[in-house]
Amino acid sequence: MNKNLEQEFVALLDKNQNLIHKVCRLYTVDEAAHKDLFQEISIQLWHAYPKFRGDSKFSTWAYRVALNTAISLYRKKTREVNTIPYDTAFCKFEYTEYNYQEEEQLKLMYKALQQLNDIEKALVFMYLEDKDYEEIADTLGISEVNARVKMNRIKTKLKKILNP
User: Which molecular function terms from Gene Ontology are attached (predicted)?
Assistant: First the structure.
């Protein structure tokens, strides 16, 4: 991979790492699993980046890769992440610690979100990131109408979980 492409990727990943942290927080329950998933998503993005055509924003593409990685890895009940070796150039990216204390007030919401299925989690995540339904639909590979209907059903489901 050429030096410019590598620098471009590291800059984009650094700028968008919070979205990866949020995906990790949504699909993991402890810090060790969070770090493992973060690393695996970063590696998957690194390997796929040469194929990124720019048809969508980097963040939209990164969401798709991150969600697909999280869903495929965490669909297994073992919750073990098998990582793959990565290029030493990738080490230039600096991992920023995720502060769990700042997330205390969201604990109940995350607990409720854990009760949703994988697609519902992804849809809520993107909705909370203020993505429009067109982008949500594009990322998840569903129609815009389907995304809206699913989101309304999820809101009702979350209300029942949070207010039994």
Answer: DNA binding; sigma factor activity
* Domain ranges, residue 156: 101-164
Mean pLDDT of the chain: 80
How many helices (H) and strands (E) in the chain? Answer: 7, 0
Segment 83-109 shows an average pLDDT of 60
Same domain, residue pair 86 and 114: no
Determine the 3-state secondary structure of 134 from DSSP.
helix
Question: What average pLDDT score do residues 57-70 get?
Answer: 88
Q: What angle do CA 117, 18, 4 make, to 5 degrees?
A: 120
Q: Taking the C-alpha atoms of 58, 61, 67 and 69 in order, what is their torsion angle to the nearest 10 degrees?
A: -100
- Asked if pLDDT for residue 85 goes beyond 70, the answer is no
Q: Are residues 12 and 90 in the same domain?
A: yes
30, 74: one domain: yes
How far, in Å, CA of 78 to CA of 84, rounded? 18
Residue where a domain terminates, one of 98, 133, 151 = 98
Same domain, 25 and 74: yes
- The answer to whether 151 touches 162, Cβ cutoff 8 Å, is no
Cα 127 from Cα 147, distance rounded (Å): 10
Q: How far is CA 17 from the centre of its chain?
A: 10
